[in-house]
Amino acid sequence: MGKILVISEKPSVGRDIANVLGCKTRGDGCLVGAKYIVTWAVGHLVTLWEPEEYNSIYKKWRFDTLPIIPEIMKIKPISTTKKQFDIIKKLMNDNNIESLICATDAGREGELIFRYTYEAAECKKPFSRLWISSMTDEAIKEGFSAIKSGKEYDNLYYSAKSRSEADWLVGMNASRAYTLKYNVLLSVGRVQTPTLAIIVNRQKEIDDFKPKDYWEVVSKYEDFKGTWFNKETKESKIMDKKNADELATKILGQTGKVVSIENKKKKQIPPLLYDLTELQRDCNKKFGFSAQKTLDLVQSLYEKRKMVTYPRTDSRYLSHDMVGKIKKTIGKLNIEPYTKYVGEILKNQKLTMGKRIIDDSKVTDHHAIIPTDVKPNLNTLTKDELKVYDAIVKRFICVFYPNYEYTITKIVTEVMDEHFLTQGKTILKLGWMELYKQDKKDKEEDSEESDELPKLKKNESVKVTDSEIKAKKTKAPSSYTEASLLSAMENAGRFVEDEELKEQLKDGGLGTPATRAAIIERLIQVGYIERKGKSLHPTDKGMKLIEIVPYELRSPETTGKWEKGLSSIAKGKMGSERFMQSIKRYVRYIIQEAVKVNRSIIFENNNSKFPDKNKKLQESFGECPLCKRGKVYENTKAFYCSEWKGGCKFTTWKDSLKNYGIQIDKELEKKLLKERTLYNVFGVEPKSGEKTVYTLKMNNYGAVIVKVQ
Description:
This protein is α+β, with helices and mostly antiparallel strands. The protein has 22 helices and 24 strands. Keywords: DNA-binding, Isomerase, Magnesium, Metal-binding, Topoisomerase.
């Protein structure tokens, strides 16, 4: 009887699986056991062909060769990871291997990594699917005891394949078309361009905004104060300062009365559990983490620490079969600093698990992100990992707490026929807010909270001891932060006016929880947006791009429809052929629209990868290590390959080592290209600022890896 080959997505995951399966013997790129052999990818091993591989005519970028729509889209091994691909291919087709198990990440991209590798290796053997939401030994064992047929995930693969091919067709054709028309490198994408449009449109609102002065009048009594409001409109703004002055003078020293006292009990139910997008939003608000940083940290907590469940999820619910595990997890969290919170839950013999926690209909591929049922060792975590883990634990615990209850008191006083509003808040029961009472930001955002109010009675007389005029200005809309942009990407339907379409787009945002962070980083990398503190701002290049592309290419509506389509393919509700036909029609439309060049829009060429036409000879820093054909040149932000038009992606960003106190200049780039590894390079430790000696190593793509000596 032959062995079973298990293919994971990463070496670290492969080692964890091998440990559970008892595969101890080291092989070439694999671990061998009595029944199983475990090998691994290193992310994507296979990619789509470049245009010139279909036909050499596409090697040179020319408008008359567009659109490029191959009849059948082909795949090939990625050159930089071909060694590991060859190992997996050999194992897949080995006569001693009877069948395979796909153990890549349980999601759309994980499925694509395995299927592309399987197809490129020309393997015909049967395969099964491991589908787990936690990397603990127990979860891996449970997963292998419930292995599923690979065919059950065919629709997920068709969705992933359609996403890959659609991005290639739209990105390759649109980028070539607009780059050629405007003579500057312009990256255009199916998801990134409408995401950029959201940021650009907000910036236009800010730029067009004209602030207006207004005033508020405050009446001060012996032990409380109130703000004037118009009884008919409920508006407190006074747009004419003269009117505000007259009102303040009119009420000063006068006696009024309390005309109404309203006490309204309110409650806030606990928030839902985290999905990835909500976790990224919270970590951006509370800690200033970028979406990518939060994803990296929670991925580490999942893979390396095994302390949280699968993070790349869009669900905020758990399933019924998890009830036993939930109770076990709560027990494992009975450690400091969570003991007092867990103790409150454990007092109740029966946990309350309503529809806001357990709902099978809202759990698709994966459930919400929660702690795993292993006893956590907080001392092993980095400072930032601890922040993310703490957020996940508190959210998990708080959903089992009672509601946060309080009373809002509204007092209206009348003075000289003018009305003034006073608001106060009395907390009745902290409930789930017990876990967040130290969170100052939550308190600052609670606009209803004010000083404690005196006990007053209706018709009680009050005297105005002082009056105050507050000068204010209307505020422009806020720039997007990563937190608010993630919300906008998730809810693409809110930018659509058509009500029927808005409803359809509820499940179709821009990108997926797993890809949104990378989209934001990509927009920064290509120079379309930049970070300023926590805010994201479009650059001049980004603003101009949105001006020249057609509405359909920048519209969240279009991409939202596509994302919904991909979801429908994964659910078996739509055929991938139908989806791809719509993409091909769309690509032809893009090329037609690109012909209509807006001559009033001129891009600065200094950020382009086009060599300067005014220079007779541009300085070359060496041969490109990636394509082996081109030469490495320089622009203001990076070193790049002269064959970039032919698809070479070699790029060394000059500021990529800024955090290490190292600037990649001409001399350093020359040395790295020549020697590939440099020792004894002085820099600083990113966190402490202490001087440190590093080893720098350049990979074939131009990225520089830093290692402490």
